[in-house]
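note to self: dont lose this again. the chain is below, predicted strucutre after it. 256 aa total, dont forget to put it in the shared folder this time
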Amino acid sequence: MADNRSQYPISRVKTGPIPIFTYDPPAGDPPVLFSDEHIVVVDKPAGLLTVPGIAPEKQDCLRSRILAMFPHADGPMSCHRLDLSTSGVIVMGLTKETHRNLSIQFENRRTDKSYTALLEGHLDSDEGTINCPMRKDMDVRPLMLVDYHQGKPSVTHYRVLARESYDSRPVTRVELVPHTGRTHQLRVHAAHPRVTTIGSPSGEETIGLDAPIVGDELYGVHEEPNAPRLMLHATTLSIHHPITGERMCFNAPVPF
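---
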């Protein structure tokens, strides 16, 4: 099939390269929110990879630390991920069977997640839904872009929790509920139209909030991060226990 992307208007924001960062994860075991012989739920700190990277120094990650804490764990363990810069609640399977069960739950969207974020500026609206289809930016990795013609459906609901200030500037505290799980989805939906975009929205598609997450080094308004961390936190996660089927909801306190 021919690639017809060139016929659509493109609004490129960054041409790269993205600055190289030094991986310096925080020390210590992640706080355990729940554990039994089947699963473990923890509060991942910002700055720690969920799974190992390619470089030798990136073998230290949440999965390796969980394995050290639960040496009987078997199998892939990781059934979903949080970005390096994102903190919050995450579940891992301690056996091959529970990992498979949890993975299917995430794939079939039988789980529920919510995030808390600080966005730049004060939003005009109190709540709404963002529907910006996304895909990888093949020219500027690891960025994602909004592609209204060939992007994958990406939907996020937002609700304002408070309008406040951070470092003497206006910010909005919001709850973000993703209905799809694209890479960088919440970061792109918050920042767009400050991200590279192909085409224009039509039908039920929308633009984003034009309010990047505070501290976002990839999609933010400043060349350098304007906060000590990305102000994005996975606050709640609901799953079905892979053995009992019980519906369980976990909460990780917001650190900002």
